[in-house]
Amino acid sequence: MNKSTIAPITFFFAMVMATALFAQDKEAMKKIESARIALITDRLGLSPEQAREFWPVYNEYAQHKRELRTQITEARGNVNLQNISEQESKRLMELRMNIKEKELNLEKEYTKRLMNVISSRQILALRNAEDDFKRMLLQRIEQRRRQQINQERMRQRQEYLRKQGNN
Fold first, then answer.
1. Model pTM?
2. Which pLDDT belongs to residue 117?
3. For residue 127, what are the domain limits?
4. What is the pLDDT of residues 135-150, one digit of tens each?
5. Domain count of the chain?
6. How far apart are CA 160 and CA 29, in angstroms?
7. What pLDDT is stored for residue 7 in this prediction?
8. Considering the domain boundaries, does residue 23 fall inside one?
9. Can you give the chain as a three-state secondary structure string?
10. What is the mean pLDDT of residues 35-61?
């Protein structure tokens, strides 16, 4: 991909993710998912034939991965690490390791399946694209959080100045 295509694509993703992060609903999640699909498709340089075969396999993999992540989150729950027993902490650690092992096995299985559809070079590009997308999304979330903090500070300062002017 040449440099003249990278800038508009990056801008598009930034705008889609920023827009999506401002709204906390299903529509926002659809926009984030669309941006992820566009990024991966672009980075892998999928042909239409490859895309038709790739996306069902990849979506199945992503769904299984989400389910495993949910298991970790649910197991962790609202555990207070200060008050947890040694036995319970060992049980949680073991569960976490088992889930991580399942994740690795899942990745191995789906990597083999994907290699029937795309090249090993494209699989490496996929892993990089996934990491880059997560990083971009986290940056947007952090920017949004900082913007909200700054807006709140500004509001508090204006309120303080308004009170000072009334005295």
1. 0.69
2. 95
3. 3-133
4. 999 998 899 899 999 9
5. 1
6. 38
7. 45
8. yes
9. CCHHHHHHHHHHHHHHHHHHHHCCCHHHHHHHHHHHHHHHHHHHCCCHHHHHHHHHHHHHHHHHHHHHHHHHHHHHCCCCCCCCCHHHHHHHHHHHHHHHHHHHHHHHHHHHHHCCCCCHHHHHHHHHHHHHHHHHHHHHHHHHHHHHHHHHHHHHHHHHHHHHHHC
10. 93
